[in-house]
């Protein structure tokens, strides 16, 4: 059920990517046994994922263009002018003096978003950043294999945000298996699942919402296939993370970005 969506996580734990033991779910987190940090996740190296962005409301995101961040719809409140969000970029350490901080100017939440599916949004920044962007998938060709997730969200269910960017790998989970876990809460045509079904232990968590799930394309370049959306708890066996399927909305995202300019 979506009461454990990672969407809710955006507020519960504004922080590190619980990529190994966390889950990408926006749902409310419940207390868990303390862990040694990210279960299955490790620190990302400076410059490894230069398009990663931390958003001040407690979500992640990726640079779609140098001036537009792609994140989750559940991380924002509607569309329109908005100067309240601060994007932190260019570093893996949020406390680094080298961090680039830029305010938002406008937000576009996916048209028709109602809390189920269509979980994407764009945030326009006050100025372009001199950083690489992350290509997005426009076909389903890359909706398989092993993906990488990264973020500053909690490193365990019920944990707090992290100072350093964490990363982990999660395997694709087919729609039928994922629907077996979530039933009608899953929207197969708009969502893609990933995680260790049998053992759990690797996932995104509170504070990771809106961040990218990505893999290498045929040319060896990173390409975004998902957006951290929701799930039942963090890294629980039998409950994979659920991500917005980027390829489904590629044309809509491109059109919306063009409308924002930048």
Instruction: Report the mean per-residue pLDDT as an integer.
Output: 86
Computed CA radius of gyration, to the nearest angstrom = 16 Å
The helical percent reads 10-25%
* Number of H/I helices: 3
Order of helices and strands: HEEEEEEEEEEEHEEEEH
Strands in their spatial order, largest beta sheet: 10-11-12-15-14-13
How far apart lie the N and C ends?
Answer: 38 Å
Shape: globular
Q: How much of the residues is beta strand, in percent?
A: 25-35%
The biggest sheet, with number of strands, parallel, antiparallel or mixed sense and barrel status, is: 6 strands, antiparallel, barrel
Total beta-strand segments: 15
Which residue ranges are poorly predicted, with pLDDT under 50 across at least 5 consecutive positions?
1-39
Determine the structural class based on helices, strands and strand pairing: mainly beta
Give your account of this protein's structure.
By secondary structure, the chain is mainly β. It contains three helices and 15 strands. It has helices at 6-12, 175-182, 246-260; strands at 42-43, 52-55, 59-65, 68-71, 80-81, 86-89, 100-109, 121-125, 135-136, 146-151, 166-173, 191-194, 212-216, 222-230, 241-245. A six-stranded antiparallel β-barrel has the order 10-11-12-15-14-13. Strands 2-3-4-8-7-6 form a six-stranded antiparallel barrel. The model is unreliable at 1-39 (pLDDT under 50).
